[in-house]
Amino acid sequence: MVRRIPAVLALLLLAASCTGSEPTGQSPPPEQVELVAQVASADLFAGQPQRVLVGMFANDGRIVTFGTVRFSFSYVGTAEDPVDPAEPGPAAEARYIPTPGTPSGEGGAASLSQPSEARGVYQATDVTFPMAGFWQVTVDTDVEGVGTARATSAFEVRSEPQIPAPGDDVLPTENLTLDSKGVPAGAIDSIAAAGADIPDPELHTSTIADALDERKSMVVVFATPAYCISRFCGPVVSAIQDLADRFGGSAVYIHVEIWRDYENGIINDAAAEWLQLPSGDLTEPWIYMIDDRGVIVDRWNSLFDPAELAAYLQ
Known about the structure:
The chain has 314 residues and is of the alpha+beta class.
């Protein structure tokens, strides 16, 4: 049976996405504020530089937003061979990546925000893990109104990626499009599952296989805007459409819906071909940049900075 894993920040942003679910009453005094970190990146692997995303939230429901933080990674071993004390690893400065459509807080310091005001994660780039196993990230920052703060989160790094990664050849996938026959509209874009029109038609006109045959660069977003528990997917797809509007013929822009039948737990074949793990689980959203040779140039998971993708398109 296929199970879907939402973005790892689902617990952080589920409350943020639901009307009436925000904390009420006054915030606790600074000395009573406790911060929790959660790694938002999926499919981390050893030996190559990659992005690492971490979300931070407080015990009163607010989210750490804006500014920069410091990541320090340490290796804690494997289940069979734990390391104690942990071995120091790479370190990096991480900047705030907002959910598209929310404030960026550019130039500001790290602060606590209500989910309705701002929400996002912190991203470090070019982080290379020298070995597979379990790792820990320690996040250090100064938060306005709280002071110096620290939080940690553990995560797994595998020996190699489990889904397509930079350097891999693209899969010649026959994803659903506006021309697909005999499929429900919601299988093309989940927004249409309730009877609405399929949005962003430009993202639903080409298959990955066709773009590959035509030797065209591609931007492919795998996401389920209507059913994404983390609520990243809708804003991410909208951000891809914005890039399509800005850069036009620089690439073929494709949205692949995750669910063919959400109620019965049936995943679209295209999504399963790219994202389903050997365990049967699946993570999303994912964005892929593919060059005109059919080689994956880059990929983003959970949230992304549109400026990074725009640099490729320019």
